[in-house]
Amino acid sequence: MAADAVKSxxxxxxxxxxxxxxxxxxxxxxxxxxDVIRRLSAIxxxxxxxxxxxxxxxxxxxxxxxxxxxHVAYPPIDFQDLRxxxxxxxxxDGPKSLEDVDAEIIATFNRLGIPLSEQxxxxxxxxxxxFDSVSVATTHKAELGKVxxxxxxxxxxxxxHPELVKKWLGSVVPYKDNFYAALNSAVFxxxxxxxxxxxxxxxxxxxTYFRINAAETGxxxxxxxxxxxxxxxxxxxGCTAPMRDENQLHAAVVELVxxxxxxxxxxxxxxxxxxxxxGKGGIYNFVTKRGLCSGYRSKxxxxxxxxxxxxxxxxxxxxLQGDSSVGEFYSVALTNNKMQADTGTKMIHIGKNTxxxxxxxGISADESVNSYRGQVRILPSAENARNFxxxxxxxxxxxxxxxxxxxxxxKNKTAKVEHEATTSKISAEQIFYLKSRGLDDEGAISLLLxxxxxxxxxxxxxxFSVEAVRLLEMKLEGSVG
Amino acid sequence: xxxxxxxxxxxxxxxxxxxxxxxxxxxxxxxxMGPNGSGKSTLSKVLAGHxxxxxxxxxxxxxxxxxxxxxxxxxxxxxxxxxxxxxYQYPVEVPGVNNAEFLRAAFNAICRxxxxxxxDPLDFDSYLREKIQFLGxxxxxxxxxxxxxxxxxxxxxxxILQMAVLAPRLAILDETDSGLDVDSLRLVSExxxxxxxxxxxxxxxxxxxxxxxxxxxxxxxxxANGQIIKSGDKSLALEIEERxxxxxxN
Lengths: 481, 250
Fold this sequence. Notes:
The structure holds 2 protein chains of 2 kinds. Chain A is of the alpha/beta class. Chain A has helices spanning about 35-45, 50-60, 105-110, 140-145, 155-160, 160-170, 180-185, 430-435, 440-455, 460-475, and strands at about 25, 85-90, 125-130, 135-140, 150-155, 190-195, 205-210, 220-225, 230-240, 245-250, 255-260, 265-270, 280-295, 300-305, 310-315, 315-320, 325-335, 340-350, 355-365, 370-380, 385-395, 400-410, 415-425. Chain A has one domain (about 25-425). The two termini of chain A are about 25 Å apart. The model of chain A is unreliable at about 1-10 (pLDDT under 50). Chain B is built from 8 helices and 10 strands. Chain B has helices at about 40-50, 75-80, 100-115, 120-135, 150-165, 180-195, 235-245, 245-250; strands at about 1-10, 15-25, 30-35, 55-65, 65-70, 85, 170-175, 200-205, 220-225, 225-230. Chain B is globular, with a radius of gyration of 18 Å. The two termini of chain B are about 35 Å apart. The mean pLDDT of chain B is about 90. The chains are: A alpha/beta, B alpha/beta. Chains A and B meet through helix 8 and helix 9 of A and helix 2 and helix 3 of B.
């Protein structure tokens, strides 16, 4: 897979997605005000309710302050010094089909391993490709359309399916939810929209690939997935960005809704540029992801492999409203160099017989800081709720740190909540021991990683688990010596 | 197969081995005895290629495909794949890594290196079970995490299991007998004896004569102050047992 990668256990691996695509783009000048939002909404030809939503969010955001409780440190962000929209220049009316998409962009996605052309597409996977502020292509739409599945860019959904968006937009993550969710609600540009009709098992794996290309531009995508009664969908997102000396802001919102007996499996392989060894540059990944198990026996499962970003602030959560609903969170978060990650989940039990499971694996190397922050809330209405949490941290070297912040709040006596946590360390002696049995650096690290993370890796869709494991190995090889 | 000549080794600023010479041929068992701090474990770590042990001067030649190669040019994993095996005095615990998966990964790494077909999980499972039975061990060893929460004796036996699975040409046993009760010592020794052949060799580092009555050495060397000061046959070990080291040191 990575034949081009030169193996050196002591030097840092090159971030192989760090290139910039030379494409003519249309960008807004820097700055944020109501006019910028109106202009954004006009470009996207949005219905009025969306502009209303944006403006309400913006006005609320102005009154909010940035959250400071996370275990991360960074200089203040000047929100007027960012661009809120950048898109590859359209030819004529903009791409109607894949043939109209700029060849440079197609080439970019090819280089990222996401072929968009009909012939080379990944088998069994439909892809929505988001480049800076816009979705440039969505594959397999016709095939999905046959079973009634809607998979398109968020902008298209606003034009083509306004009634669905209106019904669910902000229903899981209200614009007032938090500082970054409010900002996103005001300026979100694109993202993916998924609708699975009643009783349909989505025949393809759905996937969105987010690429930041333009400099000094924030990416504010929004994803909304609705799984109607008895439906099933598996969705995967991947993300990369060029290497730049400045930090770039990525503040996304993801909302999931699962109705009676529906199941949503949402997987993320996050590999935003993380900055260099000295901690210069990299993406600030401040993301709000939440799922609502609104129906009886509905299930939402988050799986994330977080390997990039200078700073991660992210807590994919599940609100277990429907009786007997199930929430799951499987996470591997790897930090190295000077990365900082504060990530975890929230499981809010409202319905009866609801169950949740949290498996978090944090790996911190070099001088990075890796924190798990998780909340389990059992509300008075949640009879017989169950939660199991397991948070394991692995330290590589002596300068990294790992923290675990579990918050458990139980308001119903019938609840059963279990929490387990461990901290271990990869030592040079372990690596030497494995090598002295014939394993090379790669083999030794792979064995250690797989051993530590296997409960999470097995949750990833097969097509992506190999890639994800490889990604982690490459990251860690530079840090273990 | 192994030729160590005038070997000087430092750890940090301290010289531990001060001109050590040792020759080992196929089919031989060499016992290395010596007082505490004489450099016995240093010798084993240097042969395995531990990065903390710096060779200041001298040579180590090891035959690969019947040709002597400079062992110091090889990385630890290359040495292992070339048939060198160190049974550690203190095997490291590796949490999360399954014992059987680890052994299969190591076994297949050696297969790949030798151009032999790798073993699939099912075949390896039978192969491993056979070795476990051969050594009179419990099959539960397979499913445990590598050395995690193993007793001292279990760790030592797990090292011998690894040796049985990887079938090295040169096995260095670093105080494999220490911390073993009589029954474990007998089992481990029987295991080693079963693995002896005309084509492989064993270097057995020990404090005590006891193990040498189970694994009978062809040569006994006394290592003191970083040098081999006396070599002999098995009777030398008995003499040490009786008289200690002092008579040799003065």
